User: Fold these one by one.
Assistant:
Number 1:
Amino acid sequence: MPVVLIEIRRECTAAEETALMDAVHAAIVSALKIPAGDRIVRLQAHPPHRFACPPGKARPDLFTLISIDLFSGRSLEAKRTLYATIAAKLGELGIPADHILVRLRDIPRENWGVRGLPASEIDLGFKVEV
């Protein structure tokens, strides 16, 4: 049940925004083996003057920050796969890998309230330890 926030420095069409959100979600499904319907993805477009990015980017307008809150328990290999898959999928949309920053926040399951219970006390329907 990852919760995703994608932040960009430009205005996009609705179709471009949807493609970006779909690409990140597809990478999460593939790398972390979550059900495809388990989707909470938000996108926020900032005016460039309100979102400073690292210097030296060839196309600073394409800088993309992805923050993902997820249950603790994913292996380093799953995280590597996630980073590479996000970079590949966003590359298909014209975003260079060196313009992408992914930040994962591993949160213990007992710190997620799901269906009125701690997530550690319910069957999620998928394996977290991948």
Number 2:
Amino acid sequence: MTKHGEDVWPLIHAERAALAADLADLTDDQWATPSLCAGLTVREVLAHLTSSANLTALRWLAGVIRCRFDFDKQVAMRLAEHLGATPKDTLEGFRRAVTSTTSPPLPAIAILGETVVHGEDIRRPLGIRRDHPIGTLTRLARYYRGSDLVVLAKGRIGGLRLEATDGPFTTGSGALVSGSTLALVMAMTGRTAHCDELDGDGVATLRERCGRG
């Protein structure tokens, strides 16, 4: 692993660039589509990704203190800062952040996960498909299997065996859950909708755990 996750940043930049391209021609109605993030439109999720790409550790800490350690309030505050007056403003702000290496106090692999997962939170309701590099998805799946940082993932898959059908990722033991690496990553991070794309005796358990938030 390169120091400070330097080898991960090109992957983050590639995912951001792909997302910006996918959203270039959305209508106003499409921008207002509910995302897979409860209560947020696709436009608001994109603004959240922009805020993360502009948030230094110092500004993150200042915001946490300002919001009295209410992390959801801090997220909402930072999102509003980058929403802009129109969807065009929102997209332009994100485009400016594509090559940013600024981030909150998180490892780069967590930022990659946020970019991929929130990108799919946006794409799926819009019917947009991206063929993510399998190496990127496998790396994320291996990260999430051992982490509950930011989102519950490791705890969600306890007692289950996950097997990718399109790549080398496998983990755990117990009732089987199989499917694409992307569907596994999304289900590991709590996206119930992606459980429809999974097979095996463990899917019902994973689906129920996703529903807990």
